[in-house]
Write a structure and sequence with these properties.
The complex is a heterodimer of chains A (335) and B (266).
Chain A (H helix, E strand, L loop, with lengths): L2 H4 L3 H24 L7 H10 L4 H34 L12 H15 L7 H19 L7 H25 L7 H6 L7 H20 L1 H7 L3 H6 L4 H23 L5 H13 L3 H26 L7 H19 L5
Chain B lengths: L2 E10 L2 E11 L4 E5 L6 H8 L7 E6 L2 E2 L5 H5 L2 E4 L11 H7 L13 H13 L15 H14 L4 E5 L7 H18 L2 E5 L3 H7 L2 E6 L2 E6 L1 H4 L2 H8 L1 E7 L5 E8 L3 H5 L1
Parallel strand pairs in B: 3-8, 3-9, 6-7, 7-8
Antiparallel strand pairs in B: 1-2, 1-4, 4-5, 9-10, 11-12
Helix pairs in contact in B: 3-5, 4-5, 5-6
Classes of the chains: A mainly alpha (335), B alpha/beta (266).
GO molecular function, one term (chain B): ATP binding
Membrane topology (chain B): Peripheral membrane protein
Protein name (chain B): Iron complex transport system ATP-binding protein
Chain lengths: 335, 266
């Protein structure tokens, strides 16, 4: 059996998902090892096992592990968000970072952070409202007797640019209160730890569960509104639910890591090349690959300029495109 | 399954495309809608297939109003293949046909043994068994259209609506499609309502023809009753000679455009 046939069979697609999971675990271990204090793998496992309170324990449990976990959560969420948007909008270029969903969530999040700093728990819901409103707005702007793919991307890019400019302006004017403009617009995991994970993990888990439950409907929706209606699906309702799910995942990510681009666009495509476009297998695969991308890139970012570090967004934009382009050239791929 | 359309008015926005359309499709028959471009054939098919809401009037399936039915329950009795359809070229024939089981499944849509049996049977009927693992992108136009029809058959409908299923296909593929439709009609008792542009093809495979023009149904009857010079002049504004083949099927040879009587008056 050729790889192509195998990778489209049930067993093949499950195996590839497990292989991605194994790779992610490996990346987490490697990432735990590197940093200003080098730890051997044996030491890491021993520390994880014994939970002694010495310095390696403090570094691993309070600094590296939460940062890696958060990176994995953010990468997975953005990738699933991108896969959903690509399906709902029937557009290979749709991704939270491109069509303004992240930018809308980011702007709403910044406004809450500055205006109501005492209500930290409102950050993700506010970002969600902003992200969903932007997704619906872009969709409606592109609507003219059906959604034109080119108009969708153009209106998305325009809206994203405008919202991003608002965010930058607000951040520049409030440089003393808010984090840096650069950190927000590039995307970083620097100094993130357990509080940020607590802030978002529940939303991300809910978003991922909702995405998986609707994965089969996303397959049907990809056939077009008329065919989907003919197959007995309530198209408008499902589309709105899927958009909301994508917005929630992107909003939770942007709330803790800023406008981390690229992973939402390419992780779904790479996994689609590997296992095809059935979303029941694609969504978990994209989540794992997105997590892998962010964890790996953040590790490189921490190591590259030691003892200082590069934001994960920079590394992602440096390493992501060449790899993606190589895959694209190598496979006879039609999104 | 018997289909009845009564006093249907429908359109897009303020524009009225169908105005007082009535139509009956008897159970187990093949009925084809004919008419010039823009006469509302596709719109009528969409309203019947609940892809478009009518402004007024009724669409009744065995006496029950389509637009009041649960949409998934409807999809188990009626399937529609729109004129324009698109799938990612990455999916396989097997996957596409499997989507036809959607209205029979819940949740993640995991297929059981019965679903797989239905898909295998449909692939056999449409002669796609050999091609089942091929990606849609690698199929020829005729094969691709058969795969889409196979998807609608996997719904196990009693009524099938097809919008120009032979457009863009070469002559052999066109015949393959209508022979498939005829075969399904005879073997499964499937009721079929479709739109075709080729009058000879329509006359060959249909029990009844229905003509539409200017938002209304003009004629309905057997191919022998409809394929007549005066009707073709009225509906398509063409002159034609009508002959009957050895098998009793009428066919037409167009000989030119007909002068529009309204233009003559001006």
């Amino acid at each position: 059996m050729s790889f192509k046939t195998f990778s489209r069979s049930h067993a093949g697609r499950i195996s590839i998902n497990f292989a991605l999971l194994a790779l992610l675990c490996l990346a987490v271990l490697v990432s735990l090892r590197f940093g200003s204090l080098r730890l051997g793998f044996g030491q890491i496992l021993e520390t994880l096992w014994c939970r002694s309170g010495d310095i390696p324990y403090q570094i691993i449990f309070n600094i590296r592990l939460p940062r890696i976990l958060l990176g994995a959560l953010v990468g997975g969420s953005l990738a699933v968000s991108g896969a959903i948007l690509q399906g709902v909008m029937r557009n290979p270029l749709a991704a939270p970072g491109i069509i303004g969903v992240s930018a809308g969530g980011g702007l709403a999040g910044i406004l809450v952070m500055l205006a109501l700093p005492q209500f930290g728990h409102l950050l993700v819901p506010a970002a969600f409202a902003g992200a969903l409103a932007t997704a619906v707005l872009v969709y409606l702007l592109a609507w003219k007797r059906g959604v034109n793919p080119v108009r969708l991307i153009l209106s998305g890019v325009a809206v994203a640019g405008m919202l991003g400019a608002f965010s930058s302006t607000i951040l520049l004017l409030n440089a003393d209160k808010a984090g840096g403009v650069l950190d927000f617009s590039i995307g970083t995991l620097s100094a993130r730890s357990w509080p940020q994970i607590e802030q978002v993990w529940l939303y991300m888990a809910a978003g991922f569960a909702a995405a998986m439950l609707m994965s089969n409907k996303l397959n049907i929706l990809a056939l077009g509104d008329e065919v989907a209606t003919g197959l007995g699906m309530r198209v408008e309702r499902i589309r709105l639910l899927l958009l909301a799910t994508a917005a929630l995942l992107a909003a939770a990510s942007v709330s803790v890591a800023g406008l981390l681009g690229f992973v939402g666009l390419i992780a779904p495509h790479i996994v689609r090349i590997l296992i095809g476009s059935d979303n029941r297998y694609l969504l978990p695969g994209a989540a794992l690959f997105g997590a892998l991308m962010v964890v790996a890139c953040d590790t490189v970012g921490r190591m590259a300029m030691d003892p200082s570090e590069l934001p994960v967004g920079v590394i992602m934009s440096l390493l992501g495109p060449p790899f993606f382009l190589w895959l694209l050239r190598r496979h006879n791929y039609e999104a | 399954m018997k289909l009845e359309v009564q006093e249907l008015r429908a359109g897009y926005g303020a524009k009225l495309v169908l105005d007082g359309v009535g139509l009956t499709v008897p159970e187990g028959s093949i009925v084809t809608l004919l008419g010039p471009n823009g006469c509302g054939k596709s719109t009528l098919l969409k309203v019947i297939g609940r892809l478009l809401k009518p402004k007024s009037g009724n669409v009744l399936l065995d006496g029950k109003a389509v637009h009041a039915c649960d949409t998934a329950a409807l999809a188990r009795r009626m399937a529609i293949l729109p004129q324009l359809h698109h799938a990612s070229g990455e999916i396989t024939v097997n996957e596409l046909v499997g989507f036809g089981r959607f209205p029979h499944r819940t949740g993640l849509g995991v297929m059981n043994a019965h679903d797989r049996e239905v898909v295998a049977e449909v692939l056999r009927m449409t002669r796609l068994t050999e091609l089942r693992n091929r990606r849609i992108a690698t199929l020829s136009g005729g094969e691709r259209q058969r795969a889409w029809i196979a998807m609608t058959l996997a719904q196990q409908p009693q009524l099938l609506l097809l919008d120009e299923p032979t457009t863009f296909l070469d002559i052999r593929c066109q015949f393959e499609i209508i022979e498939l439709v005829r075969d399904l009609n005879r073997r499964l008792g499937l009721t079929v309502l479709m739109v075709l542009h080729d009058l000879n093809l329509a006359a060959r495979c249909s029990d009844r023809l229905v003509t539409l023009k200017d938002r209304k149904v003009r004629h309905a009857g057997t191919p022998q009753e409809i394929l007549r010079p005066e009707i073709l002049r009225e509906i398509f504004e063409i002159e034609a000679e009508i002959t009957t083949g050895k098998d009793g099927v009428p066919y037409f040879i167009p000989t030119g455009t007909a002068r529009n009587p309204q233009e003559d008056r001006q």
